[in-house]
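User: Here's a chain of 109 residues. Predict its fold as tokens.
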Amino acid sequence: MIFGTIIPMETFTRRENDLSNAEGYQFEFLCDLCGKPFRSRFIPRSSGIRDNNALGRLWDAALSAAVDECRPRLRQCRGCGRWVCADDCWKSGAVRCGECASGRRPGVG
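Assistant: Prediction complete.
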């Protein structure tokens, strides 16, 4: 478990930040196109837990909850596979990100 580093997660955004600390868990997922951050709620950690395996399971559960919480605010482009923010970078009618929908990405569209 590494705090303050990027989380390798092949099935979601390309850039995620682990904002967890000794008090609890929190994660931030960034739009693959514009970088807009989507931060999960803070989940407090029980103070009496010292076992590394238990802490690892809690971190895994908190990460999974954060993905479930933030995923609805992002959409996966059918053209390039990137996860982009639904508000600014998503083109609903095209079911693609703004770059793919406009043809700005070479070889996609």
